[in-house]
Amino acid sequence: MRIAYDLSFEDMDLVCSTAQTLLRVICNGGHAAVLGTDPSKIGIDLSKEVSVWNGVAVSPLEVAYTEDCMKPKFCEADEALDQEVVKA
Asked: Is the dihedral of CA 42, 52, 16, 62 positive or negative?
């Protein structure tokens, strides 16, 4: 069973942005904090707060999915007009 069937678009966006943020933390030397073995980072939500690793600031990603992004960019009348121009 695929996990995407049970997740909303908002949840899928949250999973992807959290994974990308944690991967950026790991790649910059924060693997101990992600695994929970760094005592100075216990209780800090790395997916929601800006953190600095080896001089690199890792900030959480912004939401990519919004309800408006699923709406068509053009109305059907505009598409019909474009098709007529192509035919001519």
From this structure: positive
Domains of the chain: 9-86 (1.10.1410.40)
Phi, psi at residue 52, to the nearest 5°? -115, 130
Calculate the CA dihedral of residues 59, 37, 18, 11 and round it to 10 degrees.
Answer: -140
pTM beyond 0.85: no
φ, ψ for residue 44 (rounded to 5)? -95, 130
Q: What is the pLDDT of residues 13-66, one digit of tens each?
A: 899 999 999 999 999 999 999 998 989 888 888 888 999 999 999 999 888 887
Give all strands (DSSP E) within the chain, no chain letters.
Answer: 51-53, 56-58
